[in-house]
């Protein structure tokens, strides 16, 4: 006897265990089969009914299956790049990715929604408020951990977080983004790493960068909290947005660098 089980396209992702109970025609319990191995259910961007479906599927070779890439940094005039090993199929990475959702206490009923999964991952890849994956450090003193520039991939970071349950030291924007790409690709979401040069940082939700002066044209430093960074790295992930008006499906920005509360 061969049984085929098809999960709905919006089923919650995660680890599942299979148990089969059989009954007689009279409804009496007959026997039970317990599969020894668990299985993992992920988002399926090849499935047209899945919210993360991407067309044409050939793009998935890059945005889901590619295990390595380059992350750009530097300045607009001097663009530099670094190789990054995403390693989303390496041993332990799937377990680490699901551990991130568990650590946040994400309800299993919400894990079929890529919108919610992406938001949880973006919040949990940094350690601010949630004891997430990475501690951000822009001080220049990395004596208590690893210099962000020394990381060459996500695998060692995620394995350390899974093993210890403690935030890994240290990360900056490209490290956060590299880890997000790994986790979301591992879970089946098409994801890319994006670098923006002359990147404005708005701290008061005005959607402008503002500079304040007093009557003598002296800068009011206590008010001048906006800034423009040489570069900033974030992520885009691909999904449908049924919660928004038509026309907003496709690439969605996800930024795990701790800046402003969203």
User: What characteristic shape results from the CA principal axes?
Assistant: elongated
CATH level-1 class: Alpha Beta
Main β sheet profile: 3 strands, antiparallel
Class derived from helix and strand content: alpha+beta
Strands of the largest sheet, in order across it? Answer: 9-10-11
Name of the CATH homologous superfamily: Transglutaminase-like
Give the end-to-end Cα distance, rounded to a whole number of Å.
51 Å
Keywords: Transferase
Organism: Upupa epops
Pfam families: Transglut_core
GO molecular function: protein-glutamine gamma-glutamyltransferase activity
Structure description:
- The protein is α+β, with helices and mostly antiparallel strands.
- A hairpin with a 5-residue loop joins strand 2 (19-23) and strand 3.
- The strands form five sheets. The protein has a three-stranded antiparallel beta sheet with strand order 9-10-11. A two-stranded antiparallel sheet has the order 1-4.
- It has one domain (52-254): Coagulation Factor XIII, Chain A, domain 2, CATH 3.90.260.
- Helices cover 20% and strands 26% of the residues.
- The radius of gyration is 22 Å and the shape is elongated.
- The protein has helices at residues 60-63, 93-104, 114-124, 155-164, 173-187; strands at 14-16, 19-23, 29-34, 39-41, 68-74, 79-85, 134-136, 168-171, 191-201, 227-239, 250-254.
- It starts with 13 loop residues before the first strand and ends in an 8-residue tail after the last strand.
- The chain has five helices and eleven strands.
């Amino acid at each position: 006897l061969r049984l085929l089980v098809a999960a709905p396209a919006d089923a919650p992702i995660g680890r599942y265990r299979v148990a089969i109970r059989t009954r007689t025609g009279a409804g009496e319990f007959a026997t039970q089969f317990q599969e020894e191995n668990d299985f993992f259910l992920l988002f399926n961007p090849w499935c047209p009914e899945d919210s993360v479906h991407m067309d044409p599927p050939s793009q998935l070779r890059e945005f889901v299956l590619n295990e390595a890439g380059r992350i750009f940094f530097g300045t607009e005039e001097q663009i530099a790049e670094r190789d990054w090993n995403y390693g989303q199929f390496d041993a332990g990475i799937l377990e680490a990715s699901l551990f991130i959702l568990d650590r946040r206490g994400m309800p299993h009923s919400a894990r079929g929604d890529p919108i919610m999964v992406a938001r949880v991952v973006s919040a949990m890849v940094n350690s601010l408020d949630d004891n997430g994956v990475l501690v951000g450090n822009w001080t220049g003193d990395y004596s208590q951990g690893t210099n962000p520039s020394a990381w060459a991939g996500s695998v060692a970071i995620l394995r350390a977080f899974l093993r210890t349950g403690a935030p890994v030291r240290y990360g900056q924007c490209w490290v956060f983004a590299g880890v997000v790409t790994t986790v979301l690709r591992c879970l089946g979401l098409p994801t890319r790493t994006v670098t923006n040069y002359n990147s404005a940082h708005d701290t008061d939700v005005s959607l402008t960068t503002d500079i304040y002066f007093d009557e003598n044209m002296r800068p009011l430093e206590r008010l001048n909290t906006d800034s423009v960074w040489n570069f900033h790295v974030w992520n885009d992930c691909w999904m449908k947005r049924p919660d928004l008006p038509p026309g907003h499906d496709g690439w969605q920005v996800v930024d795990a660098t701790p800046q402003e509360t969203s």
